[in-house]
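Board notes (copied after class):
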Amino acid sequence: MRFSSLGPDKLLAIYIVLLLVVPSRLVVPGIGATGTLANMFLLAGFIWYSVSWLMRRVTPAPYTRLPRAGLLVYAVAVLLSYIAVGRRDADPLEYSAADRALLQLLVWLPLILLTTSLTQYDQIDRLLRLFVKCCTGVAVLAMAEFVLHRSLTAWIQIPGLGGGPTELVARGDFVRPTATAANTLELATVMVLALPFAVQQAFHGGDRKAWRRWLPVALISLAAVMTVSRTSVVGLFIVLLFLLPTWNARRVGRFFLVLIPALGAVKVLLPGLGGTVIGLFTAMINGGDDSTNSRTATSAGVSDLLAERPWTGRGAGTYLPLLYRYTDNQYLLALLEMGVIGLLAIVTLYVITSHCGGAGRRRFTDPARRETGQGFVAVGFVMLVVTVTFDTLSFPMVAGSTFLMLGLSGAYLGVARSELATIGDRSL
């Protein structure tokens, strides 16, 4: 492929495949989770973008400033925390972790630049369809692991990349799959992020047969439930909370006509799964859940560290489990590592994703395009909530999907505003 034939959409398509298909446990030795093949590809993409920008072959699309502004706020938080770690007597491992956080920031820059260079809705739609297709494949792999009780990606090795196989853990009588993700919660979150766009594509699938349009929705939803996690259930509930009010009564009725038999089929085919998932919430309410108690204990045990540097934190990436403990809460981790500024920066990323989706939706009249915008709204709110349940941005697949959706939502709003401005010019 010639250099001149490449475009932001093609580079992003390759990135999506690398992000979701290549196991995220495979990383460049010495870099850690930041050194995934997808992230290394983005660094190469940064070179392509810089050269193309200098040659005036690619520029940021009109009306796409919000995602770049959000990344700027996040970058300021990371840089301030980097200064903070240099001003204290940190462990050498913390200094190395802070350097990796800067490298990760450099990775997100080309991702946002590439996504906000998209100028056509069809480009965004194709990328979202590819995202759903890859997630469907990951869902099938996860379901196979759930049934076979073993990891199916342990044999995958790539020259130059290291990383041990992910060990599957059990909850109740069920094995929790990971597929190509590094963690079960990461898998659950990515499945939920793909779901609103899978639903949109099912409703607007053209001439394809109904079963082909709805199969990805069923597989992604079932794989999310098979992770046996509260994160997946909460995420699915939020997606429905934001999609159902935008549907007409006939569509809602059909949805429940399908949902009720589907739940019955799950109960018959996977006896005990529903009870196990419900038990996760009852145990949390009754105070008998180990993971919830661990999170509560962590929050109570870091108050002194939070008070030391409340605004800039201890340094992005420096609160290492090897030296301290797991937080299982990205908001708490952000407060520790980047302070209040970092916490607000992360919330800003999610709010921008939802805002761009909603603002673009109001400007479009085509039903398919409007529902794409509602998908971005749902994704932003899903991330706002599930970020409480684990350290989302520490996992490459979730973090990559988060910034991908941020950039695509900005491009979506940019297309909506550009088309509206064009219509206005023509009417003059």
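Comment from the instructor: The chain has a mean pLDDT of 90. The radius of gyration is 21 Å.
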